[in-house]
Amino acid sequence: QVQFAESGGGLVQPGGSLRLSCAASGFTFSSQGMSWYRQAPGKERELVAKISNMGGTTIYADSVKGRFTISRDNAKKTVYLQMNRLKPEDTAVYFCNYWQPRDEVWGQGTQVTVSS
Q1: Bridge-partner residues for 70, per DSSP?
Q2: What angle do CA 52, 24, 53 make, to 5 degrees?
Q3: Which residues contact 37 (CB under 8 A, 6 or more apart)?
Q4: Are the C-beta atoms of residues 46 and 61 closer than 8 Å to each other?
Q5: Are the C-beta atoms of 74 and 101 separated by less than 8 Å?
Q6: C-alpha span between 16 and 62 (Å, rounded)
Q7: Which of 84, 88, 92 is nearest to 68 (CA)?
C-alpha cells in the first residue's frame, strides 16, 4: 500500500525557514519522481516543486523559485522541501505525491503557518 507521511511543518515568522520531510512507502521509491504541492484555505491545491527519480531534474513554481529547494534521499525513501525566506502567502498545508500526482494516495499533509 502506497503511503506518504509528511512532517516538519509549524509556525514560523516571516523570513524564517522550515524543512519539510515526506517519508514514502509501498513502492520502489528510487524509480519514481516526486512532487510537493500545497493548499491554502479556500484555494485549490497547487504545485510547489518536483524532482526526478535520481534528483537530476527539479522544477519549481515561480512563486517559490530561489527560496525553496527540493531534494531526496533514495536510501531513506524520503523527499525534502527546504523553505527559506518564508512569506505569509506560503501559509498552507503541504503534501507530497508522485511526479504526476495520483488522487488516491494523498496523505494528511503538514501545516505551515507564516505569521508574526
Answers
A1: 81
A2: 15
A3: 45, 46, 47, 48, 94, 95, 96, 97, 101
A4: yes
A5: no
A6: 19
A7: 84
Strand order, beta sheet including 3-7:
3-7, 18-25, 78-83, 68-73
Contacts of 113 (CB under 8 A, 6+ apart): 9, 10, 11, 12, 91
The cell numbers describing 67, all together, are: 527560496
Q: How many residues does the chain have?
A: 116
Nearest to 70 by CA among 25, 21, 30: 21
pLDDT in tens, the chain (116 residues): 999 999 999 999 999 999 999 999 999 999 999 999 999 999 999 999 999 999 999 999 999 999 999 999 999 999 999 999 999 999 999 999 999 999 989 999 999 999 99
All cell numbers assigned to 4: 506518504
**Chain position carrying cell 512507502:** 25
